[in-house]
Specification:
single chain; alpha+beta; 5 domains; six-stranded mixed beta sheet; five-stranded mixed beta sheet
């Protein structure tokens, strides 16, 4: 075969690959939300450098995210052979020249491979080898290799997962490269996500950098960052750094009595700091030491209470922050709202007793002394108590009265989460509540000797914070409260009527007795309420005042049609100026009717596309706007055998008050089909009845997901020409 023949053949084969590659890239979806955040990521990277130049890992993470048009997990991967790093070889590595200015500048520096382990390559910069001597440098490398292989690698991988994660192995070599360097700017070590990609300054290998004089704890910490990024590239700082600090504990580094310095010396004395926000408010970002401590203690709590798998699923979970925590625990069989988890953790920090409540209110493997405000006498009125969003205010009472009423001012713009731990002759009792208005709580026991009152600003449900907004102090409020000694009120009896799906609720003949067993009437200075609390949660949905009559005692009649669909824990609450009582009524389910009509449709003139229109009704009172804005509506396409073959979304049209599809291209299908329409809202999915059958006159190919009809002809012709040309040239 001569040169011209080869060119024709190569051109034809190249054409095949170009077509296939083009179709392959056409299937790669672009994450719109990710693109919208790109510029914000770049700003975050710059702001983080200004706030804390000694933590380049997170700066580099956001810098990397800002420079890629897709999430890293969606980028195409290299296909390269397995590397073979050879002992004593010298190789050039890209690294940050200096951490004292930004944007960072990459330089190439040579390093020598001085130790190889089953999972690691340990390189040391040649400049450091020259300074310390080859024998000393080799001993250093071998020590780091041995520590990594025997301790760090197995422990970090056990808890946080395989280093390859979703991203895959960039270089086809399972070894982790550890580059021992001379880092400036107070940086002890870092992980650079840039090396996980294919950019011009990427080393295209899984690797971390550590300073020659740093500790093994830094390597354990940075290796966790490598693992976490490979599983979830934009995880919140408090989760990522909490896991990285946990890595120190797992490997026995940089902890005393299982506490990091940041937990013991910073967070324990600054408990108002928000768990969910990373605080760079002070000069030089020093307040982040508090955040490191709080994040460590929270992740430690998760690991201790829910096990290794909970942490592994948390790292694997691509939903960030609080939602990711909920999802991770659900994966190991624990359905718990983040708000309750947060209050359990906060209570455990102070009570620290695992002998009750399923062990949720204490730690088995650490002891920590937390700051609180001591209140020595009651009654008392306290003013301007700082509460932050998922930060803590804590008051401790020694030897308070057995009956005590706590009444705070309503939070200005969110909910107030509260946990009350009461210790008496029978041990500890913990009650939790999350409310936003008319808050009154009653604390009682027999020979009470100790009480903790813990409050925090919280969301009504799972707190969702955009990734780029996770820095600062979060919402702040100053809460006043009174503590009054009181006496008990008793709910002696009651009757109620409710049938699920009917909505009509009545509670009547509620008899309230004071401490002298005297019935409470509307002239007794006591208010009586019915409270609806989400079952399995501490969040109060609503509290409604009851009425009084001689014939019905305390009573209320109402329709629950405006209530959200949920299961509610209903209780009766009675409170006066110094009296309080509460009694459970029952659990009730509130359901609303979601009815979906048979969809209507019209084919285009070629019978290769379809327009679909659908409607539904939802019976929750005054909820149509929420329903129409949040319901997920899908068209489900079925073939003649009733097998689902495709799905398409529909959008709400407020002018027609229904859902419309626009033209759906079905040219890849041929034959008889029918559709259903699915509405998903409030945790339920309701489908319409089956539509009439319709005929599609498309021209499908075996690969229905891609249309190769035109290109396949070009490919066949090109290959044919190549074969004929090659044969002719061969005969000559």
């Amino acid at each position: 075969m001569n040169r011209r023949t080869r060119k024709i053949a190569y051109f034809s084969i190249s054409l095949v690959f170009i077509v296939l590659l083009g179709n392959s890239y056409a299937t790669l979806g672009i994450d719109t939300e990710f693109n919208l955040e790109q510029n914000e990521y770049a700003k975050v990277a710059y702001d983080l450098f200004k706030s804390d130049p000694t933590n380049p890992t997170q700066v580099l993470k956001y810098k990397y995210l800002s420079e890629n048009s897709q999430p890293v997990s969606d980028l195409p991967k290299l296909s390269v052979p397995v590397k073979t790093d050879v002992i004593d070889e010298v190789q050039d590595f890209w690294m940050i020249d200096s951490f004292e200015s930004y944007p960072y500048t990459y330089v190439k520096r040579s390093a020598q491979l001085l130790a190889i382990g089953a999972n690691s390559y340990v390189y040391i910069l040649n400049s450091l080898i020259s300074y310390h001597g080859l024998s000393n440098a080799r001993a250093k490398a071998e020590d780091w290799r041995d520590e990594f292989e025997t301790t760090i690698y197995p422990n970090d991988v056990l808890y946080f997962g395989d280093p390859d994660g979703y991203l895959g192995d960039i270089d086809g070599d399972s070894h982790i490269t550890i580059l021992i360097s001379d880092l400036d700017g107070g940086v002890a070590g870092y992980f650079d996500p840039n090396n996980e990609g294919t950019g011009p300054t990427s080393n295209q290998r899984e690797m971390v950098y550590v300073d020659y004089d740093t500790t093994y704890g830094v390597l354990a910490h940075e290796f966790q960052h490598l693992i976490h990024f490979n599983h979830d590239e934009d995880e919140f700082w408090w989760v990522d750094e909490g896991c990285a600090e946990l890595a120190k504990y797992l490997n026995g580094y940089d902890v005393t009595n299982n506490l990091t310095v940041f937990a013991r010396d910073y967070f324990a004395h600054n408990v108002d700091d928000s768990l969910l926000y990373w605080n760079y408010e002070s000069i030089g970002g020093k307040d982040v030491r508090i955040d490191y401590g709080g994040a460590y203690l929270f992740i430690f709590y998760l690991a201790e209470k829910y096990g290794v798998d909970a942490i592994t699923f948390l790292v694997n979970e691509t939903a960030g922050g609080a939602l990711g925590v909920e999802n991770a625990l659900a994966n190991v069989g624990y359905i718990i709202e983040f708000n309750d988890l947060f209050l359990n953790w906060a209570t455990a920090l102070y009570v620290d007793d695992t002998s009750f409540g399923g062990g949720l209110y204490g730690f088995t493997n650490l002891d920590i002394m937390m700051d609180y405000e001591l209140i020595s006498t009651v009654p008392t009125s306290e003013i301007n108590k700082l509460n932050r969003f998922y930060g803590l205010y804590v008051a401790k009472l020694n030897s308070p009265p057995d009956y005590l009423m706590f009444e705070p001012t309503d939070p200005a713009s969110t909910y107030l989460g509260m946990s009350f731990a009461v210790h008496d002759m029978n041990g500890w009792t913990v009650t939790k509540s999350i409310q936003d208005t008319d808050i009154v709580e009653f604390l009682n026991g027999t020979l009470v000797d100790e009480v903790y009152i813990i409050t925090s600003l919280m969301a009504a449900t799972t707190p969702i914070i955009p990734v780029v907004n996770q820095f600062g102090l979060g919402t702040t409020d100053y809460i006043d409260f009174t503590l009054l000694p009181g006496s008990p009120l008793t709910v002696d009896s009651f009757s109620y009527n409710y049938v699920s799906g009917n909505w009509n609720f009545s509670l009547y003949n509620v008899v309230i007795l004071d401490e002298n067993s005297t019935p409470i009437t509307d002239s007794s200075g006591v208010d009586v309420y019915v409270q609806f609390q989400f079952d399995g949660s501490s969040t109060i949905y609503t509290i409604l005042a009851m009425n009084y009559s001689v014939s019905l005692d305390w009573y209320i009649t109402l329709s629950l049609q405006s209530f959200d669909e949920a299961t509610y824990d209903v209780s009766i609450i009675a409170s006066g100026s110094s009296q309080y009582g509460e009694s459970a009524v029952d659990l009730i389910n509130v359901d609303h009717i979601l009815a979906v009509e048979e969809p209507s449709f019209a084919l285009n003139s070629e019978s290769t596309g379809i327009y679909v229109r659908a409607n539904a009704s939802y019976t929750q009172l005054d909820a149509w706007n929420s329903f129409s804005e949040n319901v997920l509506v899908m068209i489900l396409l079925y073939d003649s055998q009733g097998v689902p073959v495709d799905a398409f979304s529909m959008l709400y049209n407020p002018s027609t008050n229904d859902w419309e599809s626009g033209l759906i291209d079905l040219s890849m299908y041929f034959g008889n089909y029918h559709i259903k329409v699915s509405f998903r809202y409030a945790g339920r999915t309701v489908k319409s009845v089956v539509s009439d059958t319709f005929a599609i006159k498309g021209n499908p190919l075996p690969t229905a997901s891609l249309d190769f009809s035109f290109w396949m002809g070009i490919i066949v012709i090109s290959i044919g020409i190549s074969i004929v040309t090659i044969k002719r040239r061969s005969k000559r």
